Amino acid sequence: MRKFYCLAILLLHGFSALANNIQVTNVTLVNQNTSSGPNHPNNHTFVRFTLTWDNSWRTSTGPGNWDAAWV
What is the DSSP letter of 60? Predict the structure, then answer.
């Protein structure tokens, strides 16, 4: 059982280290609304961008898993 845990930790650590070189490109501000005045909660700005990184993955069978990045 101990060998199983060691192998599982090594595999999980190895998979988490594969994604790298995260890049944010094509950043634009769209649909900006500041008409409610300074610091008003109704003001908003949407940001559109392209997010890419090396070694990303996605499965199309089974539960349909994929990796992600917090932005």
Answer: -
Burial (CB count within 10 angstroms: exposed 0-12, middle 13-18, buried 19+), residue 53 = middle
Q: Structure tokens of 7?
A: 């192998």
Query: Residue holding tokens 């917090």?
Result: 70
Distances from the Cα of 53 to the Cαs of 8, 21, 49, in angstroms? Answer: 25, 5, 13
Query: pLDDT band for position 62 (50/70/90)?
Result: confident
Q: Is 49 helix (H, G, I), strand (E, B) or coil?
A: strand
Whether pTM exceeds 0.85:
no
